[in-house]
Every structure is written in C-alpha cells, then in structure tokens.
Amino acid sequence: TFPAECIEASVPTGDKRRRLTRADVAPVDAWRIMMALKSGLLAETCWALDILNILLFDDNCIPYFGL
C-alpha cells in the first residue's frame, strides 16, 4: 500500500475519453503529415502519428486516403 499523498495511491477514473474525428482536428494536408514524419523530430513525428491514427479510425475520411 502507498501513502495517501502519493501519486501511486490515486484511483483511476472509469470515464472514457471521447473519440476524436476528422472534424476535431484542423484540416490537415497530407503533405504536412508526410513532411512531419520525414523530419525525424520527436514532437513532429508524434503529432503526425496521432493525426494519422485519428483519421484512419474515422470512417468518414476513407476517401481522404484514397482507400
């Protein structure tokens, strides 16, 4: 057991986060995503992967990728 003021003693919440869709992210050009991935910078790569994850899980933007 952990002391009450310790972060390890906190109880996780059972609330689910809302799923993000294409409307929640700004209009993103595919070129910008590609350049962010090519840059090799950690923040840019994380941003690009997050955006790709959001867009690929949104069924309404399949034509965006030409699938």
TrEMBL record:
Gene Ontology biological-process entries: chromatin remodeling; positive regulation of DNA-templated transcription; regulation of transcription by RNA polymerase II
The GO terms describing molecular function are: nucleosome binding
* Source taxon at top rank: Eukaryota
Q: What is the protein name for this chain? A: Trithorax group protein osa-like
Q: Which InterPro entries match?
A: BAF250/Osa (IPR021906)
Organism in which the protein naturally occurs: Pseudopontia paradoxa paradoxa
What is a single cellular component term in the Gene Ontology annotation?
A: SWI/SNF complex
